[in-house]
């Protein structure tokens, strides 16, 4: 079981230059990928998304690719001399016209458009992708390892809470033993007190029995134990289990609510509240499970 929160980073030095890849993820219902690649490598965006999809199935993914060129030879970043001369002449005329103090310096010219610019980068798509993919795979593996570690920690905590819930269900079953009969006796006593002229005794017994049976929570306890067992098994499963865990929690919460509403005995009501509290604590963690 993996968490949806994690971070991975990798650097790779190649003949082209140094690639830096950073990947971070947070929880999300689906897989949502946001990429930031150097403009020259934008053509590789779809390949990067496909690569990420092979490692992750859920979560919001932020992936950044940095690149530092190795080739810094003269001529790689040319100065446009003609544009600089034209700008300088115009600036000198403007300075004299406006009677501005000071001199025009090189740093002033470099701020103007078309003076200094890098030469267009003609890339070999396959060569660049080969290097970028290796760096991205290393970063993604580091990310997955972190998500797995956090997932194991969450699974251990949830497993402990499930054991506590199982004990609570056993206590409910023990406390509810004979509760139907007790409920039946209370109903009969109250009806006899309210009715001055009791109706047919057989009919009264039937109605009391039907009302008392509605307070039986044995089926809810059985289903709740089944859900707990399925949840425990899913914690050990490989792959994305978050959606399944969330569904099981919904079913567990439904059974706990029914137990609380059907049974009026104080001890069982307290146990039902305890179950719902544990379910809510687990739910908070499940929101971050892949």
Task: Describe this protein with a few key phrases.
single chain; 290 residues; alpha+beta
Give a structural overview.
- The chain has 290 residues and is α+β, with helices and mostly antiparallel strands.
- Among the domains are: 81-110; 181-216, no CATH class.
- It contains nine helices and four strands; from the N terminus they run βββαβαααααααα.
- It has helices at residues 45-55, 81-98, 106-110, 125-176, 179-194, 201-213, 218-235, 242-262, 266-286; strands spanning 6-13, 17-26, 31-36, 59-69.
- Strands 1-2-4-3 form a four-stranded mixed beta sheet.
- It is elongated, with a radius of gyration of 35 Å.
- The relative contact order is 0.14.
- The model has no long low-confidence stretch (mean pLDDT 85).
Give a short synopsis of this structure:
With 290 residues, the chain is of the alpha+beta class. 60% of the residues lie in helices and 12% in strands.
């Amino acid at each position: 079981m993996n968490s949806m929160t994690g971070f991975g980073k990798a650097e790779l030095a190649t003949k082209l230059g140094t690639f830096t890849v950073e990947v971070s993820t947070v929880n999300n219902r689906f897989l949502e990928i946001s990429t930031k690649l150097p403009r020259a490598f934008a053509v590789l965006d779809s390949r990067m998304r496909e690569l990420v999809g092979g490692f992750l199935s859920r979560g919001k993914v932020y992936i950044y690719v940095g690149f530092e060129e190795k080739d810094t030879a003269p001529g790689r970043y040319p100065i446009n001399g003609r544009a600089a001369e034209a700008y300088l002449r115009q600036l000198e005329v403007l300075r004299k016209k406006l009677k501005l103090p000071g001199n025009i310096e090189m740093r002033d010219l470099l701020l103007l458009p078309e003076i200094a610019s890098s030469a267009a980068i003609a890339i070999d798509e396959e060569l660049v992708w080969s290097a970028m993919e290796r760096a991205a795979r290393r970063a993604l593996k580091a990310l997955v390892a972190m998500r797995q570690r956090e997932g194991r920690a969450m699974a251990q905590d949830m497993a402990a809470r499930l054991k506590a819930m199982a004990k609570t269900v056993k206590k409910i079953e023990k406390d509810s033993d004979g509760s139907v009969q007790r409920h039946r006796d209370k109903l009969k006593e109250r009806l006899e007190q309210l009715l001055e002229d009791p109706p047919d005794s057989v009919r009264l017994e039937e109605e009391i029995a039907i009302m008392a049976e509605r307070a039986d929570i044995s089926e809810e306890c059985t289903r709740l134990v089944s859900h707990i067992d399925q949840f425990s098994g899913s914690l050990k499963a490989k792959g994305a289990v978050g959606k399944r865990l969330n569904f099981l929690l919904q079913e567990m919460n439904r059974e706990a609510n029914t137990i609380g509403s059907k049974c009026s005995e104080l001890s069982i009501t307290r146990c039902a509240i305890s179950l719902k509290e544990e379910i809510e604590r687990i739910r908070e963690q499940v929101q971050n499970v892949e």
